[in-house]
Design goal:
single chain; 313 residues; alpha/beta; seven-stranded parallel beta sheet; elongated
């Protein structure tokens, strides 16, 4: 029995598998659908301790995402259930998106595009453009700060170095020697905030880092700095970010993720010209999508044959 939301059509024809597909929004709905499942493939459904403790015969909780903050790992471990994700599948794609958002912010591409579409090509070199162009500088010699130094951040490093950016990183779980080997300087979070011209977030969402970037942190940043987030929206306090963007504490932001997704249309960040928004699409490519669909299936076959899954959390 395999209840899940995402497209796993490859499983539909597998002999001996009873395939149950059900969208669940609440704990009770998940419990009703999955209580006797041998494996569950999870989208955004709440797999809390209560839900996990109701699973009678589950051996694997697999998610076709890199993030697994909706799954209580401690409860799953205590219940003897393996959890797997698709870490590494979209490493190139997400690091590309982070670099794309950085460049879009640095060159103010969004503002330029709107100006051209508004028929103001002839005035683009006049005084009215000075406000848009103010603050644009060559990337060479500027500083990129990485919050988190896992696979995606490490993949971003050579791409950023291609633009001659100096790179700082903060990650309390990664030894400084690992960063040093890649030409990255290990620093404290406060130093990273103070010295970086661009800050890119590459950390999994945990209880410890939820809202780790609030108004106090934004006030430490350069007024010319840009914040890039391709990780998880709730790492940022969005109300504080709105204040920072409208009060000039930072110059702008490039966000592929939001705390509430899909983003609500009354979110004030949508109204700001100094924010670039993409719809949690950084993971996407044709190749990555195919792999994302396949990986949970591989993990299911591995766990059922007595092996550890590839994406074991």
């Amino acid at each position: 029995n395999i209840p899940f939301i995402v497209d796993m059509r490859v499983l539909r024809g597998v002999t001996g598998v009873e395939f149950i597909e059900k969208s669940c929004d609440t704990e009770d709905e998940v419990i009703s659908a999955a209580h006797d499942a041998d494996v569950v493939v999870v989208g955004r459904e709440p797999y809390t301790a209560r839900v996990i403790n109701s699973l009678k015969s589950c051996r694997l909780i697999s998610t076709p995402k890199v993030g697994y903050d909706n799954i209580d790992i401690k409860a799953a471990t205590e219940a003897g259930i393996v959890v797997s994700c698709v870490a590494g599948v979209s490493t190139e794609e997400v690091s590309d998106m982070a670099m794309a958002l950085l460049l879009t912010c640095a060159r103010k591409i969004l503002q330029e595009d709107k100006t051209v579409r508004a028929g103001r090509w002839r005035t683009m070199h006049g005084p009215e453009m000075e406000e848009i162009w103010r603050g644009i500088a060559p990337l060479r010699g500027q500083t990129l700060g990485l919050i988190g130094f896992g696979q995606i951040a490490r993949t971003l490093v050579p791409k950023a170095k291609g633009f001659s950016l100096k790179i700082l990183a903060y990650d309390p779980y990664v030894p400084a020697e690992v960063m040093d080997k890649m030409g990255v300087i290990a620093v404290s979070l406060d130093r990273l905030l103070r010295e970086s011209d661009f800050i890119s977030i590459h950390a999994a969402l945990t209880r410890e880092n939820r809202y780790m970037l609030g108004l106090e942190q934004f006030k430490l940043m350069k007024r010319s700095a840009y914040l890039i987030n391709t990780a998880r929206g709730a790492i940022i306090d969005e109300k504080a970010l709105y204040t920072a963007l409208t009060q000039g504490y930072i110059a702008g932001a490039g966000l592929d993720v939001m705390e509430v997704e899909p983003v609500k249309m009354d979110n004030p960040l949508l109204k700001l010209d100094n924010v670039v928004l993409t719809g949690h699409s950084g993971h996407y490519s044709d190749t990555a999508t195919a792999n994302i669909r396949q990986r949970p299936v591989e993990d299911i076959t591995r766990i059922m044959s007595g092996q550890w899954p590839r994406g074991w959390v």
